[in-house]
C-alpha cells in the first residue's frame, strides 16, 4: 500500500477564528470535543462529510484544511479509523 | 479520558470482579458437576450476574455525576466506528466459541460443563468488545 498520511491545519484555523475551542467546533458540526482533538492530532481520519463540514465552518476549501502528506507514516490509531 | 472509555473500563472491571471468581471456582471444582437440571450452579451464576449489575449500576451513577455534561453528548461518527469495530471483533470470538461449544463439546462433555463453556465464551466475547473499545479510545487520545 502507498505510504502517506492526512495532515490538517485545524488547530491553526481555530486560532485564526477567534480562538475557537475544540468543543465549539465539534458542536457546530456534530462531533465530540474528543473527536476534534483526535482529528487535530492526526489520530483519527474524519469522514468526507465531516471534513467538508469543518471546511465550511472556516469558510475555506477542503484542501486548505486537510492535506495529503505522501512522505508521512500513518499512526497506529489513524490506521484503525 | 473520555466518558465512553471510562464506561468500557468500568465494564471490564465489573466482569473481572464478577466472572473471574466464578470461573475460577468452576475450573477448580474437584468433581464434575451434577447433570442438568441441577440448579445450584444457576444460583451461583445469578449471584455473580447480580453482583456485576450492581457494580455497573454504581459505576454508571458515579460517572454520570462526576463527568462534565459535555462528556455525555450523543455518539458521533468516531464513537460509532469504534463500536462497529469492537462488535465485529467480539462477533468472531463469539462465533468461534459457540462452534466449539455447540459442535464439539457435546461429544466430550455433558451438563454444566457445556453450559459454563457457553457462558465463558459469551464473557470472553464481551471482554473483547470492551477491550477493543477501551484500546481504540486510548490509542486515539490526543495526549
Helical content band of chain A: 40-55%
How do the strands of the widest beta sheet of chain A line up side by side? 1-2
Give the N-terminus to C-terminus distance of chain B in angstroms. Answer: 10 Å
Q: Roughly what fraction of the amino acids of chain A lie in strands? A: 5-15%
Beta-strand content bin of chain B: under 5%
Spans of chain B with pLDDT under 50 lasting ≥5 residues?
A: none
CA-CA gap between termini of chain A: 16 Å
Number of helices of chain B: 4
Proportion in helices of chain B? over 70%
Low-confidence blocks of residues of chain A: none
Q: What's the story with the biggest beta sheet of chain B?
A: none
Rough outline of chain B: flat
Average pLDDT confidence of chain B is 87
H-E string of chain B: HHHH
Overall number of strands of chain B: 0
Please report the total strand number of chain A as a whole number.
Answer: 2
Global shape of chain A = globular
Class computed from helices, strands and strand pairing of chain B: mainly alpha
**Mean pLDDT of chain A, as a whole number?**
87
Largest interface: A-B, 21 and 15 residues
TL;DR?
The complex is a heterodimer of chains A (81) and B (143). Chain A has 81 residues and is mainly alpha-helical. Chain A contains five helices and two strands; from the N terminus they run βααααβα.
Amino acid at each position: 500500500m502507498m505510504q502517506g498520511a492526512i495532515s490538517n491545519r485545524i488547530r491553526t484555523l481555530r486560532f485564526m477564528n477567534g480562538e475557537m475551542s475544540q468543543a465549539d467546533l465539534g458542536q457546530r458540526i456534530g462531533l465530540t470535543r474528543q473527536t476534534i482533538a483526535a482529528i487535530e492530532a492526526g489520530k483519527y481520519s474524519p469522514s468526507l462529510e465531516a471534513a467538508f463540514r469543518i471546511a465550511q465552518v472556516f469558510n475555506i476549501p477542503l484542501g486548505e484544511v486537510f492535506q495529503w502528506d505522501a512522505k508521512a507514516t500513518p499512526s497506529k490509531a489513524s490506521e484503525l479509523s | 479520558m473520555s466518558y465512553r472509555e471510562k464506561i468500557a473500563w468500568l465494564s471490564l472491571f465489573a466482569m473481572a470482579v464478577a466472572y473471574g471468581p466464578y470461573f475460577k471456582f468452576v475450573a477448580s471444582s474437584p468433581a464434575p458437576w451434577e447433570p442438568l437440571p441441577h440448579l445450584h450452579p444457576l444460583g451461583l451464576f445469578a449471584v455473580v450476574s447480580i453482583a456485576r449489575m450492581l457494580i455497573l449500576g454504581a459505576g454508571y451513577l458515579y460517572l454520570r455525576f462526576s463527568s462534565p455534561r459535555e462528556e455525555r453528548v450523543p455518539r458521533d461518527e468516531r464513537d460509532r466506528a469504534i463500536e462497529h469495530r469492537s462488535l465485529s471483533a467480539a462477533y468472531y470470538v463469539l462465533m468461534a466459541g459457540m462452534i466449539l461449544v455447540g459442535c464439539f463439546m457435546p461429544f466430550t462433555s455433558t451438563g454444566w460443563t457445556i453450559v459454563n463453556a457457553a457462558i465463558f465464551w459469551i464473557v470472553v466475547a464481551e471482554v473483547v468488545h470492551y477491550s477493543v473499545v477501551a484500546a481504540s479510545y486510548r490509542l486515539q487520545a490526543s495526549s
